[in-house]
Amino acid sequence: MLSAILRRSRSASTDNHAAGAYDDSYYTAGQLALIKARFMKKTSGLVAGFILASLVLLGFFAPFFSPVDPTINGANPDYRRGAPQWVHFSDENGFSWRPFVYSYSKEKPKLDFKALMKNGGGLDALDKLTSSGALNSSSQNKYLVNKEQRRYIQFFVKGWEYPLLQIDSLGIDIRWDRHLFGVEQGQIHLMGTDEDGKDVFSRTLHAIWVTVSIAIVALIVKLFTSLLVGGVSGYFGGKVDAVLMSITEAVRVIPPIPVYLACAVALSQLDLTPVQRYFAIAVVIGALDFAALGRRLRTHILVERNQDYVLAAQLSGSSHLRVIWRHLVPSFTSYIIVDTLINFPYVILAETSLSFLGLGLTEPVNSLGVLLQKAQDPDIQQNMIWQFFPVLVFVALIMAFVFVGDALRDAADPYSERNK
Fold it and tell me: Which member of 28, 39, 164, 194 lies 3.0 to 4.6 Å from 176 by CB, making a disulfide possible if both were Cys?
């Protein structure tokens, strides 16, 4: 009995000690550690973060996860406008532990030219031929499913080569030809093909990283511009502050879409490669979106520049640049990180809108905006509904960014726990 009481007291003291240690570590933790601890309590943020991380990884390693070359070199001329090839484990022929897809063969077009010869080939015969749908592009691309011939899915298959590590300035070009999955014969098209025979699934995976990378470059430009304008304006004040804030307000009140359209039209007059156009669009989007963060940073520095630690740094001989970048800006780091992540979906929407309107990236570049532009074709809306797969991926990507940004915003608020 006495030993049981001693064990209970020891376990209680251990629990109290652990709780005290946790409380001590909580109250002595840095700001980023506190944000992480609060974020881990947000279920919606964790789920959205997992989806976001999965999409970004799929986009970053798109060549590995793509079974088909997304360019015109990997187009399947024998399966243009083809429907998605679903993966099966069983059918009327029996069960299989190995997943498989069926073989497809193109149906021969049924053109009744004899109808044109009847009655001297008049307009009535021609109208009958055209109204029958025989000349319709969809009717000319119908495929027959051969369920007797299975094509089993294999993993880590050898396929088209892609750059694994490529640095032209250093002469490094490492290529690989392995992919996560494929079929033993022909190609597999999980989400069908477009009118050129290019795989929609592979194009979508590559488009994710192109769109996200444009957002990253644009946000880097935005962050640098905001720190430069807000930091200099808030630290020096006076006439410098008045001039910089006047420019900031002028940029802020101009509607962004007309400015984007004007810049896109100007870029279209230049002879740019797809890569140069890619970076130009990213720089334009980032440079025109600095106003809000720049003003908030300026307000923060106006308050902090008279603090004792800033005066001590100035008296010790630190330059203005060092005081701004080593003392004032780091005190605002958590907000900058949260604001950057929250603005990710808006930058993606800006690039996607320009590409959707035909003023951003264009074919043959793979981006979500380019693929969304194809989805507005009436023929695709009626006959190739599978080309809306990039739309679903785009919505999932934007919603994941929104939920992660909201969770980070709540986690960065030091009063969020007190308000519950």
Answer: 164
Confidence band for 122, pLDDT divided at 50, 70 and 90: low
Amino acid at position 407, single letter: A
Residue 346, CA atoms < 13 Å, CB-side half-sphere: 15
Of 274 and 180, more confident: 180
The whole-angstrom separation of Cα 361 and Cα 188 is 27
Using omega within 30 degrees of 0 as the cis cutoff, is the peptide bond preceding 364 cis?
Answer: yes
What integer is the mean pLDDT of 97-120?
A: 68
The DSSP H or E segment spanning 303 is: helix 291-304
- 8 A C-beta contact, residue 374 and residue 396: no
Phi, psi of 189 (to 5 degrees): -125, 90
- Name the β-bridge partners of 162: 176
Residue written as token pair 């149906």:
107
Q: Which residue has the higher pLDDT, 344 or 20?
A: 344
pTM: 0.77
**DSSP 8-class letter at 315:** H
- Looking at the DSSP bridge assignments, the partners of residue 151 are 101
Strand-pairing partners, residue 163, are 175
Which percentage of the chain shows pLDDT scores above 90? 6
Average pLDDT over residues 390-404: 89
CA-closest candidate to residue 210, choices 372, 403, 340 = 372
Report the alpha-carbon distance of residue 366 to residue 198 in Å, rounded: 11
Comparing C-alpha atoms, which of 147, 183, 142, 205 is closest to residue 384?
142
Query: Does an H or E element contain 16, and which?
Result: helix 2-28
What is the C-alpha to C-alpha distance for residues 324 and 314, in angstroms, rounded to an integer? 11
DSSP secondary structure, 187-247, as one string: ---TT-B-TT--BHHHHHHHHHHHHHHHHHHHHHHHHHHHHHHHHHHHHH-HHHHHHHHHH
Which of 395, 386, 397, 399 lies closest to 201 in space, CA to CA? 386
The full set of domains in the chain, from first to last, is 76-192 (no CATH), 206-412 (1.10.3720.10)
